[in-house]
Amino acid sequence: MNLKAFRGYSLHNLRKDVLSGIVVGIIAIPLGLGFAIASGTDPATGLYTTIVAGILIALLGGCRFQIGGPTGAFVPVLLGIVLQFGFENLLIAGFMSGILLIIFGLCKVGSLIQYFPKATIIGFQSGIAVIIFAGQIPNFLGLHDIEKSEYFHLNMKEIVGNLQFLSSYSILTALICLGIVLVIPRLFPKVGKLSYLLAIIISSVVSSLFFSGKVETIGSIYGKIPSQIPMPQLPEITVEKVMMLLPSSFIIAVLVGLQSLLTARVADEMTGVKHNSRKELIGQGVVNMVAPIFQGIPAAGEIARTVTNIKNGASSPIAGATHALFVLLVVVLLAPYASFVSLASLAPVLMVVAWSISKKEQFTEIVKEKSSHSLVLVVTFLLTVFTNLTIGIGAGLGLSLLFYLISKVKQYQKQVNNAL
């Protein structure tokens, strides 16, 4: 933990940190559940990840305001791993990504973030947003028996082919939730940050009271959520599994690093307090090595929760630790009630989150440039959506490098011509 954060620390700061941590914890609960389900895993894994990542990144991270946990950026990657290799191998891939992140930190790879092409970042973030949004359409419509695929177009084909089975009860539940999410922040700005949780609770209660048994819930699909954290257990790792999962682990590590360092940079701009990128990567590495031992999925710093943390007056890592401890307390005391949450209530929340991370304004600006950056953006976006994130990022970086080399060659030729 960064001791500099506690210089001049007072009871007033402690009170603000604790209150901020509770607010962020309330936001983190529905997002943890939702991102875990969207990633093809048990909803409880999202809560375990939130707890482990929240505590460890507060203790070991390089940004005092950072809130770690499951993020939307991982959804398509994690879903693809689960569908292709299974949940246990996802845990191994997450563990391996933690080792890679520690290596990145020791090698000071964090300083290279400033050279990562903006068009590529916005391209894959926008692609991820589309995948998350589209992935929630079945829950919104009440289509729970359709086959999931790691490919966007196949999932869309499956949805269209099953539209005759949509549930009006699920749609009504989802619309109630969506309405609350959109209206509460406008009418009651002071409690706007709690709109996600309020919307899920209210719409789930309405669903259970007026059309009980007509809408699928977390309990009906996944069973009850345990009221305790699982005992630590390291998944069985073999050389064959390491070689098979290395590409997936690498892309998870890159995503964690990018997401966490970009979030830390946003925190720097908001607070004027500079983060330590080397320490942040090593801290995230430890998080992603420990989380799988407690059945947790890969985690990273998350922009929306970190910004909320700062806006609520946080001044030290105590806020991040408090948010994790609050989620732990909720799991211990209230986990059985989470089983009654309807899946149709989670869908609009993740759709709104997807919309918020879509980078739509920046996407439009770069496309309007009609430059090489525009081509990099569009190619990265389309390949992320229609193939996978690894290909999307790889193609974006490759194109960016190609255009950079072409520009250097043109500059050299111009200098030669001028010299002649």
From TrEMBL:
The chain crosses the membrane at residues 21-38, 44-60, 67-85, 91-109, 121-143, 163-184, 196-222, 242-264, 325-355, 375-406. It is found in: Membrane. Residues 14-380 form the SLC26A/SulP transporter domain. Pfam families: Sulfate_transp. Keywords: Membrane, Transmembrane, Transmembrane helix. It is a multi-pass membrane protein. It comes from the Bacteria. This is Sulfate permease, MFS superfamily.
